[in-house]
User: Fold this.
Amino acid sequence: MRKLGKFERRLLAVMLLLSVGPTLLVAIFGARSVVHYLERVGSPVLKESARTSLELARALKVHFEQSANAAAFHLGELYDLESQPSEASMLDLMARTTRSHHADFAALYTLEDSVWVRRITYPHETTRLDSTLAAASFSPTDTARKVSFSDPDVIGSAVALAPDSAVVTGFMLEQGTLEMMRRTGEDLSRYSSLPLYVRSQGLFLIAVISVIVAIMVLASFIVARIIARRISHPINELATATERVAQGDLDFKVDVEARDEIASLVDAFNKMTTDLKQYKADLVKAERLAAWRDVARRIAHEFRNPLTPLQTTIYRLKQRFKDSSERDEILEMLETMSRKVEDLIAMANRFSEF
Assistant:
């Protein structure tokens, strides 16, 4: 595996910190908030409040049952004192009994063909009482006994007046009250196990968040590694190329895949090395040309030094042998020498102008 450079390591660390850090903080605070909320829901104060409410409802139900028993027994006693009262007297007894015991209803049932039939009811508009009761489920005695109606929210007690007649008194709760009490009891039972549920959910939440954070860290590391490599690899290659160019290797080129600004930087560097190479070649050529110019000037100077006296000497010889018998031959020789000297002087002048 390729060793990470210092710049790449720092870039990778910064990218991981920027990508994973906020996620980790949000996950930690989110988990703490959820656990704190669950702990508040499962607080002992709420549990005690629910338990007290349920006990109060149960105590109220027992109170209604006891009051119904007392009202039924009282109505039975009044019936015995009246000794076979008429229907009007019976309604009066029922009215007095319900008022004194704050009951909601009173009814007279008679046994007909193994079925208890409701004959007299106070008040008359009571519709939640069963008009008939099966003998198997309704067996009144001299003492008050609980009566079960089809409506579970009707609490009643019965007292036998005779083998074939009985009075029933009681209370009518809001419909759904007992079902609500039953559900409240079940909810309280479940609520009692809420601390264990909170702990288990807290552990589960921590596990889920840990897995998510681990996945995000791994994914962020892979993505950050790829991005860091795309950024740092061209930069490392540029650094290496800079060292090579500084050592004089102008033929070195940066050959990496890059995009955007990094690609522009790589292209600019390669163009710079190409230009430097051309400038170096031009400089060498210019130095060589300058050297040749210096040599040419020196040669011209060295040529002119002896040629000028030589030209003067030839001129004097021409003047001396002007009247000589061998004048023509000597003058021709001197003329030839003079032309050669002039050619050499012209050549020296051209060298000096190089």
